[in-house]
Amino acid sequence: MSIQRRNFLKSAAAISGLALAPRFAAADEQVARATRTLPAPRIKDISVIECEPQGVRLTVVKITTDQDGLYGYGCATFTQRADLVKPAVEKYLKPFLLGKTTDRIEDIWQSCYDSSYWKNGPVLNNAISGIDQALWDIKGRQAGMPVYQLAGGKCREAADTYAHASGAEFEEVIDNAKKYMEQGWRHVRVQVGLPGMSGYGSQQKEEGRPTALHDKPLFDPAAQFRRALKLLEVCRHELGEKVELLHDMHERLTPNLAVQFCKAAEPFRMFFLEDPLSPEDLGYFRQIRQNCATPIAMGELFNSPHEWEPLMTEQLIDYIRVHVSQAGGFSPARKIAMLAEQFGVKTAWHGPGDVSPVGHMANVTLDLVSYNFGIQEYSPFNERT
């Protein structure tokens, strides 16, 4: 190569470098902006918000950080023992957490879980849930993203839900179910009253009360068995095959009757039967699975991994419907969904009316990010909520 040509190439390279220099500088500045962040926020305050819209007691935890305008909310609602969650947060978790950084969500969850020594109780789990969900809310606000993006992004655009059709008599249940179907619902849970006795999920008529030695509410498991089974027969006949039917047994039958009911309901091709057994009788799920193929959903009363893990790993249920705050919040619920996916179990998070709007948002977030999503319970808010 001649000296003249080498000089020409050097000059061209220099000119090119000068032309690209502003672009390189701009790229460097962009990287600096992306990596230049404020220090991790620290927990400045934790407060508990209690309210009772139309008699429904709801509890929400708010975490305020040391960065102006950065805060988060989490559901800690435990309606049946609502007075206990607030002191659990304020007297025990708050002093433990003040000053800690908000970015270590898993570490905070585990340390809160271990801090009381005795674990997996509903009061502490709901208190931790409020903290956990609030920390995820803060992280989403920091990132400028919905939490479902932080959890890996959406697997679907929306969550399919089911509605509740109930009544004192079969005809009323059918009418209510048809109204939902006309509105576009494809999944309907059906419940019917037990004449003269206390049932679940529907109105009861006072007439027909059996003779008793007291005036307190009555319940007869055998009568409930017959009544609920007849309801499923009537609903399948009147509503046809296109609607997916669900029914909540609500742990009201003896274990042996529950096994019989699940087997007897098999011809009606249920979407699922919910909570056939109480958490104390989990061993009977093996009998159910051995005797029929009726899809089973279970979990709203669970607080401990020792309750849901065997049912999923042994594939004894088809849907896990844990109450997210009872399990400890978004973080453990995400793990439940991932474990369930490995064993072909789908999610159906508990979504009753006594969950705060914040809690329902946590449910829907899990629905969107879980590949093994099954169905979401829908309960409309009352006017005050």
Description of the structure:
- The protein is α/β, with parallel strands linked by helices and 385 residues long.
- It has two domains: 43-146, Enolase-like, N-terminal domain (Enolase-like, domain 1, 2-Layer Sandwich); 161-377, TIM Barrel (Alpha-Beta Barrel).
- Helix content is 45%, strand content 14%.
- The protein contains 13 helices and eleven strands.
- The strands form two sheets. An eight-stranded parallel beta sheet has the order 10-9-8-7-6-5-4-11. It has a three-stranded antiparallel beta sheet with strand order 1-2-3.
- Strand 2 (58-65) and strand 3 (71-75) form a beta hairpin.
- Helix 2 (82-97) packs across helix 4 (122-143).
- The longest helix is centred in the N-terminal third of the chain and has 33 residues, at 3-35.
Keywords:
3-stranded antiparallel β-sheet; TIM Barrel; alpha/beta; 13 helices; 11 strands; single chain; 385 residues; Enolase-like, domain 1
